[in-house]
C-alpha cells in the first residue's frame, strides 16, 4: 500500500549490526512542507533510520519511495541527487573558509578573465550566498569571516544555505541539531526549521527535546527498540502521551 502524494515513503526498513537488530521493520510517510520529529530512547534506532534515508547506511530490507517512485538510495550522493540533504553534527563545513566559500564548496561559480583564463567569480558567489543566507534568515556581520568564528546557529544556517544551493532540495534531515548548542542558539535552529517549512521544505528532525518538538513539528514518530511505537500529531496529543509511547506505556 502506498500513501498518495507522499514526498517520501519508507516501508518495512530493517537493519542489523552483527547480532543487533537496530531497526526491525519501520514504515512511515513524509509530506511536502511538514516538519516531522523522530523521538525515542537512546539506541531506539532513530539515527540508523535517518542514515538509511540519507544513504549513509545500506538497508538490509525494505523500500524507499520518493515522489511515488521506488528510489535506490545507496550512498549520500544518490540521496542528494533526489533532493534529500542531511545536516551532520559536524556540519561538514570547512572552518577556515568563509560562508560563501562553504556554501559553494566544490561548485564555485567561475568567470573567464580576458575571455580566456577561468577564475573564481567571487562577486557572483557573494551575491548568491547572500540570497541563500537571507532565505535562512541569518545576517552575518561580514561575509568574509571564516566560519569557525561564527556562532553555532550561524554555522548551522550556513550549512543549510549550502543545501538550498541545490534547487532539487526538498527534504532536510537533521539528527539532534540543537544538542550541542546554548539556549539562544537552539532557538535560532527552531526558527530556522520554521523558516524552511514556510518555504515548503520538508524537515525530518531527530530530537530529545519534546519542548522543541512540540514547538515546531507537525507530527512525531516515536521509536522504541527499533520499531515505531506510535505516530502522532502535535496538535492532538500532549507531551505525557509521547513520553508514555517512548517508555512503552510504563510511566
Ligand atoms: N555503526 C554501527 N555499528 C554497530 N552498531 C550500531 C551502529 N549504529 C548503530 N548501532 C546500534 O544500533 C542500535 C540503534 O542505534 P541508533 O540508531 O544510533 O539509536 P538512536 O539514534 O535512537 O540513539 C544501537 O543498539 C546501536 O548500538
Ligand atoms: Mg542517534
Automatic annotation (TrEMBL):
A Pfam family of this chain: ABC_tran
Protein name: Sugar ABC transporter ATP-binding protein
Keyword Repeat: yes
Gene3D superfamilies membership: P-loop containing nucleotide triphosphate hydrolases
InterPro entries to which the protein is assigned, alphabetical: AAA+_ATPase, ABC_carbohydrate_import_ATPase, ABC_transporter-like_ATP-bd, ABC_transporter-like_CS, P-loop_NTPase
Record keywords: ATP-binding, Nucleotide-binding, Repeat, Sugar transport, Transport
Domain ABC transporter: 8-250
Organism ancestry: Bacteria, Pseudomonadati, Pseudomonadota, Alphaproteobacteria, Hyphomicrobiales
Amino acid at each position: 500500500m502506498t500513501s498518495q502524494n507522499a514526498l517520501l515513503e519508507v516501508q518495512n526498513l530493517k537493519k542489523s549490526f552483527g547480532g543487533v537488530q537496530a531497526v526491525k521493520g519501520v514504515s512511515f510517510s513524509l509530506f511536502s512542507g511538514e516538519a516531522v520529529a523522530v523521538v525515542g530512547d537512546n539506541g531506539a534506532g532513530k539515527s540508523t533510520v535517518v542514515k538509511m534515508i540519507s544513504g549513509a547506511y545500506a538497508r538490509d530490507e525494505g523500500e524507499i519511495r520518493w515522489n511515488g517512485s521506488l528510489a535506490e538510495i545507496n550512498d549520500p550522493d544518490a540521496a542528494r541527487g533526489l533532493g534529500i540533504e542531511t545536516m551532520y553534527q559536524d556540519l561538514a563545513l570547512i572552518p577556515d573558509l568563509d560562508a560563501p566559500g562553504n556554501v559553494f564548496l566544490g561548485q564555485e561559480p567561475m568567470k573567464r578573465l580576458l575571455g580566456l583564463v577561468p577564475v573564481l567569480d567571487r562577486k557572483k558567489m557573494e551575491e548568491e550566498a547572500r540570497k541563500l543566507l537571507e532565505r535562512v534568515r541569518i545576517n552575518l556581520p561580514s561575509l568574509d569571516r571564516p566560519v569557525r568564528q561564527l556562532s553555532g546557529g550561524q554555522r548551522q544556517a550556513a550549512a543549510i544555505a549550502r543545501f538550498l544551493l541545490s534547487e532539487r532540495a526538498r527534504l532536510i534531515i537533521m539528527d539532534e541539531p540543537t544538542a550541542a548548542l546554548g539556549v539562544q542558539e537552539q532557538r535560532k535552529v527552531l526558527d530556522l526549521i520554521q523558516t524552511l517549512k514556510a518555504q515548503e521544505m520538508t524537515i525530518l528532525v531527530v530530537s530529545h527535546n519534546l519542548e522543541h518538538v512540540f514547538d515546531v513539528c507537525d507530527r512525531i514518530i516515536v521509536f522504541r527498540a527499533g520499531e515505531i511505537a506510535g505516530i502522532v500529531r502535535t496538535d492532538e496529543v500532549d507531551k505525557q502521551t509521547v513520553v508514555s509511547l517512548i517508555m512503552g506505556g510504563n510511566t
